Amino acid sequence: MSDEINETEDLPNYKPSGTPEEAPKHQLSGMYQSWFLDYASYVILERAVPHINDGFKPVQRRILHSMKRMDDGRYNKVANIVGHTMQFHPHGDQSIGDALVQLGQKDILVDCQGNWGNILTGDGAAAPRYIEARLSKFALEVVFNPKTTEWKASYDGRNKEPVTLPVKFPLLLAQGVEGIAVGLSSKILPHNFNELCDAAISYLKGEEFTLYPDFQTGGSIDVSKYNDGERGGSVKVRAKIDKLDNKTLIIREIPYGKTTSTVIDSILKAVDKGKIKVKKVDDNTAADVEILVHLAPGVSSDKTIDALYAFTDCETSISPNCCVIDDNKPHFLAVSDVLKKSADNTLALLRQELEIQKAELEESLHFASLEKIFIEERIYKDKEFEEAKNMDVACAHIDSRLAPFYPQFIREVTKDDILKLMEIKMGRILKFNSEKSDEAIAKMKNEIAKIEDHLANIVRYTTDWFRSLKKKYGEGFPRRTELRNFDTIEAAKVVEANEKLYINREEGFMGTSLKKDEFIANCSDLDDVIIFYRSGKYIVTPVAEKKFIGKNILYINIFKKNDNRTIYNATYRDGETGVQYIKRFAVTAMTRDREYDLTQGTPNSKVTYFSANPNGEAEVIKVTLKPNPRIRKIIFEKDFGEIEIKGRQARGNILTKNDVHKIALKQKGGSTLGGRKVWFDRDILRLNYDGRGEYLGEFQSNDSILIVLNNGEFYTTNFDLSNHYDNNVSIVEKFDSSKTWTAALYDADQQNYPYIKRFSFEASSKKLNYMGDNPKNQLILLTDEAYPRFEVIFGGNDSFREPLVIDAEEFIGVKSYKAKGKRITTFAVSTINEIEPLRTPEPKEENEPNEPDEPEILDPDSGKSDGDIIDEITGQMKLF
User: Fold this and answer.
1) pLDDT tens digit string along 558-597?
2) Structure letter (DSSP) for residue 854
3) Which CATH number fits domain 495-667: 2.60.120.20, 3.90.1200.10, 1.20.1440.230, 2.120.10.90?
4) Is the distance from CB of 294 to CB of 301 less than 8 angstroms?
5) Catalytic residue among 14, 39, 42, 130, which?
6) Residue 592: beta bridge partners?
7) What is the 8-class DSSP label of residue 814?
8) What burial class does residue 149 get, using C-beta atoms within 10 Å of its C-beta: 0-12 exposed, 13-18 middle, 19+ buried?
9) pTM
10) 130 assigned to active site
11) Which end of the chain has fewer surrounding CB within 10 Å, N or C?
């Protein structure tokens, strides 16, 4: 074989036998380039991307065209519709059937009958032979008009199909669309029907408008980065999660593009990964979504809600990409641009329809005028007409007779008009009624005048068109998706602490797999760990199963990013000067696995005292110096509360320049950071420490928040940021058990007579109700005014009575929230209004400061080693 190869190499002009002298040459690269461009153009224009004029992909347009051709008011089998559509769409019955089901599930253009699947559960539709469809009334009114449709030949030339349908509504934005072509894709989110009508009206009037998505699946949406639907924008969509009780969450609405199956699968995956703790998940979805999430014992429902948003499909991010076909090319537009083009297209179509209608009426008016004169003047009985030798002579005679009336006609009389007059049957002439003819002519003139008015005021006519659509069909399209601003959920804060962190100090390892060693804290695989060493070095490193961190560990715990409430108190000896320094600092952010130093970094520096304080506590320490004849006082105390909290790199204050024998804790201290200021943001129904929303006050650790709902329920919570509150919250404030509240309400148990009650709310994590057990009781008003006054306005048969003024404090005393209260009157009451009080509470005298408790003195000789004493606060304080 090698010999043969060598022989052919020696013959440069060698050709295999049978090779023609002039073989054809092909430029393969050019052919591939042309083929690919042809294919890409075809997919973009004919398959995947909708047209801006009607908002349809070709398959959708052909389906609707077929349904219009088949329409007789009755339902047609989907199989028949699919077969009929194949005359126009040569891509198989499966693609047509799927596209028709998607159109039907959007519930705008197609009236469905049978099992069309479920967008909530993801269940598919029944076979095409079992389900039926017809065009909706909205589709028949808005989508079709053969007189304004531009037609083209179908793929085989046997039929005609529309280039685009004359749609007089922004269907592209109402339905939404998603398609993947070659080199580009389109993703337009659905919008609300009524809001589209309002936006079109605003645009035609020259007013500003905004449009935001609205989904059939409901949920809530954050549109702060929607960017008008252009490329680069995004929206966050969340499920609606409520608390059924403290141990059960219920998901009632799901994000767009998800189903109950995908949501449940994502929850179970999060459970398997240990992100959340859930006992079981039940799917009770029927007509509405109902997913029950049963929590494991001891799991916070508030934290689980945040975890569901952070780790499951209960929150998704969608990136819209508004790509449409315009002028036979793909264009990337904003949603507002699509709305404007659609409104302009609607105006043009309405003008075209009016012009066609006007031309038809003018034709009818023209012939009716000719007919009237022809019959009333009895031209058909003229001798010249009856004795005419041929049609031309007869036409000429009629034309001469009509000549005096030409100024009355709206256009020139043609021979075709005269021939049409000659086709009038004798029965019509005999039944001709001049008065009825005049009425018909007058009616046509009025209609033409109206059309001319509409054409002259086409913008007004178009806005009226959109108003009529909204009035006729708008009730069926309420907004389902709530617009809200989402707070960012940090995954590390809501992940379930499903692991335990351990440390082996002797070998210098930490991790979650060292189950026989010293326990540090519960953690998750997303957490970071902060580690302080006796040398003053400290690092932040991720949690791991087993990781070498070194020896001489002073303190180790879970690191909380941006935590400025955890304050580290420390003293250290500088290795160069021997001076003892004292400092307080917070660690809010660090680079992972980068080494930092709380000392000045000089060699042989050493931490002599350390404590970590979660709420900025400042203890008192006892410092014992080494004996020295020149030092009279070798023991003194130092309060960390006197030391200012500074940055972690600050040197600190000088504690002493003398040699230190030991430093010990003398007395635990309180927080030096004061209370926590808390605000409530009603937009997101969450607490925050950032000054957003209503200021609730400054909270100490034992303070709580009062929540009062519109239905009379109330409860108290702590001021943790992870708390979730109901949508029907009425009052959120700092709880004060001494505050007196006054309520006026109708008592259903007492024939709905009005009652007044005065009471104080009680602290309770369980929901209680101050309006009584009867759910039919109705609240009139609730006030925390100290001395409230009410004006009772009578109504009905008692409206003649003078208004009654009530001083609530004199009317009834303060009782339990369970008390029924005191009836105001048995007369019919129209309204009860709160009026200005006659007096205000006197300022309270400041209480005298409480005597401080006796400090707890720790015995330095209590058996602890001088070289290594365990911290009484954290369990990890070290003494050197």
Assistant:
1) 998 888 889 999 999 999 999 999 999 999 988 999 999 9
2) P
3) 2.120.10.90
4) no
5) 130
6) none
7) E
8) middle
9) 0.72
10) yes
11) N
